[in-house]
Design a protein that fits this description.
Blueprint (H helix, E strand, L loop, with lengths): L1 H10 L4 H10 L41 H18 L4 H15 L20 H4 L47 H5 L4 H11 L4 H6 L5 H9 L3 E7 L3 E7 L22 H10 L1 H5 L11 H10 L4 E4 L8 H32 L19 E4 L3 H15 L8 E3 L1 H8 L14 H6 L9 E7 L2 E4 L8 E4 L1 H8 L17 E4 L2 H6 L2 H10 L17 H4 L8 E5 L5 H9 L7 E4 L15 E7 L8 H17 L7 E5 L2 H13 L4 E4 L5 H13 L4 E5 H7 L8 E4 L6 H9 L13 E6 L4 H8 L1 H9 L4 E5 L4
Parallel strand pairs: 3-10, 3-11, 4-8, 4-9, 5-7, 9-10, 12-17, 13-15, 13-16, 14-15, 16-17
Antiparallel strand pairs: 1-2, 2-11, 6-7, 6-8, 12-18
Helix pairs in contact: 3-4, 10-14, 12-13, 13-14, 14-15, 17-19, 27-28
Length: 766
């Protein structure tokens, strides 16, 4: 009781949003230095009626307890017992890991013991997911509605926004009402003449044959290479024989891009900031990067761009894909409203297939972003693109509520700590990673918090989609709204590797499936491609990332079936991040031999304990930092070190602040010979670890610049013994992409051909 009372006393100093996050999820986000898991021992009930996620009136029945909830209750009970018996740390830790390995995938996030270390029930199968346990499917609200951020609402009710339903309905509105001027008929005639050249109409009106669909599903793609001025080396791939290589347009007029009329005038104004930053702009509307990206987007090919940078081109790219997505929605809605007017005026009894202009459900665009701040910026771009001038402001429903829930609270700003610029750019604003919101758009108005089945665009995080999609056997799950997605945009995909990549894979498995319910659709207006369950072959996927990773590549290659083909940027790094190491340090790259990708994990562990670790057991090799990218490997090494009774400390993303400070202090003073450090901790914290004399990269880092950052931490050591500094890196032939990003493509080719260890010496002047 004293421990729980003390937790409530500490919670008084937190803001309302922080207290709500603690109450719902049992912890704060690991990026916050004040993260305290205060409510870990509080019992969680599936029929929770306090300030949690809102439930719709039609879903008030008690949810059946799933296997996930049983596992959650077991782990919670174990956590309570640990607070009473902390002296049994190692035994309970190993028992918890063994139990969770049998239980399969879960998203239980460990709590921590009073000693500052992470919970003794840490489980590799659970830890790789970064999701707190209270984000269970049973607490999810329907149709993507988030509860109000004010916890004083008590048992919150679902926000439905009923009064705007008719105003934003595509079925009951007409072109004249939406346009609101006398030139609507003339514009309709002009647009009908341009339909034959419109990329959207060309893409969606293409009628595939069954043989072509079978070919796309079964045969491998043929590819060709081309170099563009700004994007660099591109790989065009397609399964269909009629594959034409796209060439960049040196110059093009905005009017030739088939943009919806309001966007032709608003886009140059919205994008003026980026164009003005170009030294000699050849285009008044697009930067060179935007021009080439939009040239590919506008052909409705899939696109993978792995050179996104939050500091330099992140916002520039976001504006480009927002323009493409909004243009797609406006043109699609205009076609529906125009056909509504035609059907209204046609003679009774006549029937025609000319009005098939919809999918099985209304949502057309799905935008996956990592944080609420990203969603906030996207909505602001949409608003700016729809506002023709200052006098003609767009009507945005629920804008105040949106700013309150997606904006950042000045009181929640982290301490004024020195962090790298890229860290500040990634974690700017509201960094909550559990959200989803529906957006309905007509030409003059926008509706935020629209129910998913009344939305044109859905903006969500992977976790937000995972909790509403649910898992097989869950009672409250829904993914019918994903059945007719025509454009999927995955932004900052590399960050999901630091969150939970399984959520992305789960989403890809449930997109473009036939819905289980009709949801009131007029089947006479549904396209044949949707009725044939061919939506996936027409869906355009835009994938943006800061790096090339096998898991990201697998999504692009195995889950994208666009009949138009794919375009991937495949530039190779020439120098690598090792050139940014400023300390004089010998780098030894030791190659691991493995038969296949699955066996390399065990091969790396065995190589480490047999060949590498014995060299560092001597007391003279003190102050050794072991950098471990995967949490699975971290738990395995930690258990082995405890079994061998080695003198070590360990820090992961779940370690309490007190435990982190204690481990850093022991390591600096030499009281602990080894320090295990996870990549996720470095990603979310970016602390400088002082006292490093020997550095071991158990695996090459996911982000190449982490290599130079970790190496440069050695310059913070004031002992003056730099002559004894060492750096050892373990790699295999399956780490070619990561290796090239660190040492460059030329050295990578030599290292993969040779089976000997490679010794590199960086002088600090490279």
């Amino acid at each position: 009781m004293g421990k729980r009372r003390g937790a409530w006393e500490l919670a008084r100093g937190l803001s309302k949003r922080q207290r709500k996050h603690l109450r719902q999820f049992g912890e704060q986000h690991p990026v916050c230095d004040r993260a305290l898991r205060l409510f870990g021992a509080v019992e969680v009930r599936s029929d929770n009626s306090d300030k949690s996620s809102a439930e719709s009136d039609s879903e008030t029945e008690v949810e059946q307890v799933s296997v996930y909830h049983k596992l959650l209750a077991t782990l919670k009970a174990s956590s309570e017992s640990e607070s009473e018996e902390e002296e049994d740390e190692s035994e309970s830790e190993e028992a918890g890991e063994g139990e969770a390995e049998l239980s399969g995938e879960g998203s239980q996030e460990p709590e921590e013991a009073d000693g500052g270390e992470e919970d003794q029930n840490d489980v590799p199968g659970q830890k790789e997911g970064k999701d707190p346990p209270e984000q269970t499917l049973g607490q999810e609200q329907a149709d993507g509605e988030d509860t109000c951020g004010d916890p004083s609402h008590g048992a919150a009710e679902e926000f439905t926004d009923v009064k705007h339903e008719a105003e934003f309905s595509l079925e009951t509105n007409f072109m004249e009402e939406e346009s609101g001027d006398c030139d609507a008929g003339k514009r309709e005639k002009d647009s009908s003449r341009a339909f034959s050249e419109d990329p959207l109409r060309q893409h969606m009106d293409k009628e595939l044959e069954e043989k072509e669909v079978e070919k796309i599903s079964t045969l491998s793609k043929t590819s060709s290479q081309m170099k563009w001025p700004r994007l660099g080396q591109l790989t065009f791939s397609s399964t269909l024989e009629k594959h034409t290589t796209l060439k960049p347009d040196k110059e093009f007029d905005v009017k030739q891009l088939h943009l919806h009329k309001p966007l032709e005038s608003t886009w140059p104004k919205v994008n003026k900031h980026f164009v003005s930053s170009v030294s000699k702009p050849s285009d008044p509307s697009f930067t060179p990067l935007q021009r080439e990206l939009f040239c590919i987007m506008n052909t409705y090919r899939d696109l993978f761009y792995p050179e996104q940078n939050a500091l330099t081109n992140g916002e520039e790219i976001r504006h480009a894909y927002c323009l493409h997505a909004l243009n797609h929605v406006l043109k699609a809605n205009t076609q529906v409203l125009s056909n509504n007017a035609k059907k209204r005026d046609q003679k009774p009894g006549t029937d025609s297939d000319d009005y098939r202009d919809q999918g099985l459900t209304r949502p057309k665009v799905l935008m996956i972003v990592p944080f609420r701040e990203c969603a906030l910026r996207i909505v602001h771009i949409f608003i700016n693109l729809l506002e023709v001038n200052d006098k003609r402001k767009i009507d945005v429903s629920n804008k105040k509520r949106f700013k309150g829930e997606f904006g950042s609270d000045p009181e929640e700003k982290p301490p004024n700590l020195k962090r790298p610029e890229d860290y500040e750019a990634v974690f700017a604003g509201n960094i909550d990673d559990h959200f989803r919101i529906g957006v309905a758009i007509l030409q003059k108005s926008m509706r935020l918090y629209a129910p998913f089945y009344s939305s044109d665009i859905i903006i969500a995080s992977p976790l937000g989609m995972r909790t509403i999609i649910g898992a097989e056997g869950e009672k409250k799950r829904d993914f019918d709204f994903l059945s007719s997605i025509e454009m999927l945009i995955i932004d900052q995909a590399d960050i999901y590797l630091m969150q939970n990549w399984e959520h992305v894979l789960h989403l890809m498995k449930h997109i473009n499936l036939l819905p289980l319910d009709s949801h009131g659709v007029d089947f006479s207006r549904v396209r044949m491609l949707n009725l044939n369950n061919w939506s996936r072959y027409y869906r355009q996927t835009l994938l943006f990332s800061a790096l090339q990773d096998p898991q990201i590549n697998a999504v692009f290659n195995k889950h994208c079936f666009n009949y138009m083909g794919q375009v991937a940027v495949r530039n190779v790094p020439l120098s690598g991040s090792i050139s940014r190491v400023v300390v004089q340090l010998p780098h030894v790259f030791r190659r691991i031999e493995a038969e296949n990708v699955t066996s390399v994990i065990d091969a790396r562990f065995q190589f480490f304990i047999d060949k590498v670790l014995p060299e560092y057991r001597d007391a003279i090799m003190s102050h050794t930092l072991i950098y471990v990218p995967s949490y699975f490997d971290y738990v395995r090494l930690r258990n082995y070190f405890k079994k061998e009774e080695l003198n070590f400390a360990h820090i992961c993303e779940y370690t309490k602040k007190a435990g982190v400070c204690r481990a850093r202090r022991f390591f600096l003073k030499g009281d602990k010979q080894f320090l295990l450090l996870t990549e996720r901790f470095h990603f979310y914290k970016r602390y400088t670890i002082k006292g490093i004399r020997n550095l071991i990269f158990y695996e090459l880092p996911t982000y190449s610049h982490f290599y130079s950052e970790i190496c440069n931490m050695m310059k913070a050591t004031d002992s003056g013994v730099d002559a004894t500094w060492t750096c050892t890196v373990l790699y295999s032939k399956y780490d070619a992409q990561k290796l090239a990003a660190v040492v460059g493509i030329d050295r990578t080719a030599q290292m993969l051909q040779s089976k000997k260890n490679v010794h590199l010496f960086v002088t600090g002047e490279n």
